[in-house]
Amino acid sequence: ETEGDGLGCLESLIVVSNRQPYRHEYEDGEGDEGSIVVDEPAGGLTAGLDPVVREANGTWIAWGDGDADFAVTDDDGCVAVPPDEESYTLHRIELSEEAVDSYYYGFSNQVLWPLCHEFPDLIDDGDAWANDFEWYRTVNERFADAVAEHATAESVVWIQDYHFGLAPRLIRRQIPEAATIAHFWHIPWPTPETFAECPADEELLVGLLGNDLLGFHVDRYARLFMECVEQYLDGAVVDHDRWLVDYDGGTTRLATAAMGVDADTYDETAREVEGTDALLERFGVSPEVTLGLGVDRLDYSKGIPERLAALERFFERNPDRRGEFTFLQKATPSRTGIPAYERLGELVRSEVTRINSRFGTDDWQPIVYTEEYVSREHLCGLYRRADAMVISPLLDGMNLVAQEFVASSVDEDGVLVLSEHTGAHERLGADAVTIDPTDTDAFAAALETALEMPASERRRRMRNMREDVFGADLEAWMDSQFAAIGRLHCSSGSDDDE
Ligand code: GDG
């Protein structure tokens, strides 16, 4: 019943995330000679949470990573932000190169990421993981210690993501019982069969059950979490109907909340765009073409090779589309240095070259591939201009790009081709063209369906999707989290609310 403003009884908010909301840098990369400038939050969750932490005069604990970052903090790593209107404390944790290698590139991204995305073959095997896991634990301890420095009995601690699977329990041990710990897990949760491959299965579950509230994007991930607890953790009692897990004297409530995007901003930005011809020409795309678009981090979970295979099949089957349709794939390199990501980059680039040499002509390429980072304005322009947006992950917690595209489609004439294996599909599946990315023939046929769809049907589907994306935006997601946190936090000490 406590709808909306869960922030009401919140006196002290402590956010924990890997990425920091503000970065300090030396101007012109001049080393410590230059003056220090500040980077604003880049977008997404960080930008969305910033005003909430400001309003709460809270604390944000995150990894700080440069000399300039620490030149402005006090001895404890704290600095007041934002610089122009100091509203909250940013507490930066400094990590050695070895810690980053093992905690971030190692256990987080070569064990937990492939595990949760159902790529057991990519999980670091051999001895590497044991050392990585030790560092993961050490870093989680350091964050937990930082939380303990700031926490009071009134505190709400809100932890973000898979980098902090052990922190909740470590925090619980150090802070007053009345404080509330909540956590949002932004990626999928694996099946029990896959979870068996987790080298630190029990400790991870025990860690996460230090939370009072654990959130996922969709019901399925929460259910899988409960199944894993039941199978792999002795002594835990799972209430599948009420979504509660009792363990070691504490109760963890599970919740789902599908994350949204700042839809109004995407809409406004897309409306202000003054054409994309110049941008397309810069990439080597003729402004006249029918445009397909892909926007992803260069990650093996995003199904980019599968998308290229479907495009090749599409051009085989539709010779009349050659010269007329171009697919622009924007890929942002990420986690470079991890072998699986290096291999993926090589595969994608060589497949693009091969397909282009098969169908391309002197003045037309079927696939234009770029790893250039584009501004939010340009991104919105491309979303608006795209005739078909293609999102084909093999598994994706939510996928915000799908929603950003919908929010930017102000002319209501673009079609969303969307993998059924994304959290976003639970929201948009009814009005998107659904694909299984591994079924190349059906995927190619879906591209045909999208490009041949009559304008009236495009509009009808896009309107439905826009209703969803604007109705359940980033702010609504945060409200729902804080309402759930508020119900636990403000009622602690009184009777259970159900
Ligand atoms: C994880 C989960 C979940 C990309 N290239 C550019 C650019 N981007 C931005 C997009 C979007 C973001 O990066 C990617 O977000 P996704 O949600 O698609 O995917 P992940 O990075 O894997 O995020 C995912 C998410 O967490 C939130 O919970 O949805 O399932 O995997 O915002 O716009 N932005 C700009 N230029 C680029 O070139 N400006």
UniProtKB/TrEMBL annotation:
MF GO annotations: alpha,alpha-trehalose-phosphate synthase (UDP-forming) activity; trehalose-phosphatase activity
Upper taxonomic lineage: Archaea, Methanobacteriati, Methanobacteriota, Stenosarchaea group, Halobacteria
GO process terms (BP): trehalose biosynthetic process
Xref: Pfam families: Glyco_transf_20
GO cellular component entries: cytosol
Signal sequence annotation: none
Protein name, UniProt field: Alpha,alpha-trehalose-phosphate synthase (UDP-forming)
